[in-house]
Amino acid sequence: MAISSGEPKEGPPPRAWAELRDSGLLWLINRTALHPRGFALGVRFDEGGNAVGWQLLGDGAEPWMFLGEDEEDSCFARLEAFLDSHRRDA
Predict the structure, then answer these.
(1) Predicted local confidence at residue 7, as pLDDT
(2) pLDDT confidence of residue 45
(3) In whole angstroms, what is the distance from residue 21 CA to residue 26 CA?
(4) Residues 6+ apart with CB under 8 A from 43
């Protein structure tokens, strides 16, 4: 895994933490990596709606399942739109 400690040499600028949820990436991380293991990644927001941190939720005892099929489809569509906007041919 590549970790950068400075300004990226190429690519788009860093994004706000809140966009992790809006882009569908938070859903993907939770849906594929954490929910089946009984955890969830939660982004914490202050009173002004600014993302101020994150926390790992759950105890690993049982898988998380809380979205209906329509909500899953919506999250997947947001994720695909986000990824499409970053593809080289876009």
Answers:
(1) 59
(2) 87
(3) 5
(4) 17, 18, 20, 21, 26, 51, 53, 54
3 state SS for the chain: CCCCCCCCCCCCCCCCCHHHHHCCHHHHHHHHHHHHHCCEEEEEECCCCCEEEEEEECCCCCCCCCCCHHHHHHHHHHHHHHHHHHCCCC
User: Token digits for 88?
Assistant: 């080289």
- Cα–Cα–Cα angle for 29, 33, 34, rounded to 5 degrees: 90
pLDDT in tens, 30-82: 999 999 999 999 988 899 988 888 899 999 999 987 667 778 888 899 999 99
Instruction: Tell me the one-letter amino acid at 11.
Output: G
Q: Write down the domain spans for the chain.
A: 18-86
